[in-house]
Design brief:
two-stranded antiparallel sheet; 3 helices; 2 strands; nucleotide-binding; GatC; EC 6.3.5.-; protein biosynthesis
Amino acid sequence: MSLSADEVRHVARLARLALTDDEVDALAPQLSDILAYAEQVGEVAAQDVEPTTHPFALRDVSRPDEPRPSLPREDVLAAAPHAEQDRFAVPRIVAEEG
């Protein structure tokens, strides 16, 4: 499967990544190779093997819920693409009724 530059740009927009034209040109063949490898894995998958979610038996992996120090709010908000009133600002995803 070969990805076009437009498809790479589309995926980058979905992931909110800003790519230069040079980066798009470099990533298109790399992503195409990754998808080709994924197709090969799908072809090799055996029909008589039961699907599994984990290769090993699960054990209780949760930890106690204990408060720990966190990053200062100013540092976190400084790394955000957009913040307002000490909160992350994100694009609206639902329309207002009315």
